[in-house]
Each structure stands twice: as structure tokens, then as C-alpha cells.
Specification:
With 98 residues, this protein is an alpha+beta fold. A four-stranded mixed beta sheet has the order 1-4-3-2. A hairpin with a 5-residue loop joins strand 3 and strand 4. The chain is globular and about 40 Å long. The termini are far apart.
Length: 98
């Protein structure tokens, strides 16, 4: 059996990781490494969202609802990450693609 990566810092399963076409494009252009933002998302740092959204995400960790984060990468680039309620998939999209 192959060794499994440590998951002790993850608060929830991410399922399949799905990049939107816009994320794929900016990654290919070398303008984005989404990994640090995904790590923040999976550790409960929801980024640039309102206090009520932050509280809703924290509650969703227990209830199993959808989790949503938003991060300003720089002035012209913001991304959103959301994990489905059933934890089957996590999507990374440009804020402009929402």
C-alpha cells in the first residue's frame, strides 16, 4: 500500500479538485499558484469574506454544508474556492467567473 500524505491539518475532505477555465489560463501564464490558497481554505482560513460568511463556513464544518472562500491574490486577480456540501469536489474559480 502506498503511503498517504498527511491530512492532519485538513479540516475536511476536498474531493476532486476542479480548476475553472480562467484559473487554468492564469496558471498556464504563470500568474497564479493556487496551492497556498487551497491550503488556507482547507485549514479554515476563509480569506476575504464577511463575518457572517465566515461564521456560516465554520458552522458548515459541523453541518456538512457548502464551504466558500475568497482571496485577493493582487489588485487585478481574485479567486474563489468552494467545496461541495457532500465534499465530493472543490472548485477553484476566478471571482469574475462566479
Amino acid at each position: 500500500m502506498a503511503p498517504q500524505p498527511p491530512t492532519s491539518n485538513l479540516l475536511f475532505a476536498i474531493g476532486a479538485l476542479i480548476f475553472s477555465p480562467g484559473i487554468d489560463r492564469v496558471m498556464r501564464e504563470g500568474r497564479l499558484d493556487p496551492l497556498p490558497y487551497l491550503q488556507r481554505h482547507t485549514r479554515g482560513d476563509w480569506g476575504d469574506i464577511t463575518d457572517p460568511q465566515w461564521q456560516a463556513n465554520n458552522a458548515a464544518l459541523q453541518s456538512g454544508d457548502r464551504l466558500e472562500s475568497s482571496y485577493a491574490v493582487h489588485r487585478e486577480l481574485s479567486i474563489c474556492i468552494f467545496t461541495e456540501a457532500d465534499r465530493s469536489a472543490t472548485h477553484i474559480v476566478l471571482a469574475s467567473e462566479r
